[in-house]
Design brief:
transmembrane; DUF318; single chain; globular; 79% helix; membrane
Length: 350
Amino acid sequence: MTLDYLTYLISVGLQSVQEYLALHVLMCLVPAFFLAGAIASLFSKESVLKFFGADAPKYVSYTVAAVSGCLLAVCSCTVLPLFAGIYKRGAGIGPATTFLFSAPAINILAIVYTAKILGYDLGAARAFAAVLLSVLVGVIMSLAYERKDTERKPIKTFGEAEHKHSVQLFILLIVVLIAPELMSSWGWKYTFQILAWIPLIGLTAYLSYRWFSKEEINSWMGETWFLIKQITPLLLLGVFFAGIAVVVLPKEYVAAFVGGNSLASNFISSIAGALMYFSTLTEVPIIKALTLLGMGTGPSLAMLLAGPALSLPNMIVINRIMGVKKGMTYICLVVLIATFSGYVFGSMFA
């Protein structure tokens, strides 16, 4: 590889990062970080996790397991200790694996970023499929293994009280998050969007300081900064290499393996997503790069479903927690369900 070609690749990667840092992306992603930070610090995890115990009806535990990823703001890394905790503390294998599959896929940051970069159809399909199919995974795991498990126990939790203004703050932050997109769809220019957006942010900040103590605000800002520090460097790195991949990877190879919408292309995409390790959000720019090279719509969804749920390190941990038989059953279910979901989505909306 010549020095000139290497310099060219670096410039391509930097240009991708520059395009990523465009104003319309930041107006979406920055509020999402603050929303995720608020969820992590101001919403009691214990008030959610208590629904996984034996005292909770199954329809409640499965529903909470399928949607709690939005409220817990977990990523593919942090979901494993939470899963281990609820599984070992008495949750049934059905709700526990439902939570394990759904939670990383409906992380509020992941859904917002997927919709913004890959399109609202893929963003909505990712959230809908993760919620619906996670229940299917849990029910199958329960039918296969629940009768052989030990008796479920109630899950003891502490600090279950929610702040009385948590819901109001959540709604305000959602409004801040979606306002730029709404104004853009109305045809407003960026200048007018910012002029309307700033007072909304000011109102949110003012009410936050009225509603929450200094310690709670500090906790919120601390969680937000932690997420930014943890995710942003890896995300920019992913964008950088995704930009280079567009130049380096032969289009014919991508089209041959994950182009179109065959069962084979969706299966290959699911396997590739399961074996790769995606840090939070990095799957999005990588899939964006692959779509530019010819990746099909169905395989894109298949990778979005399998990628956050599985990786080689995750598989090792899952097998250690549940045992090899249950762990491999779960892994195979995720790959197969991601494959068929991608195929159906590609057939309907390609």
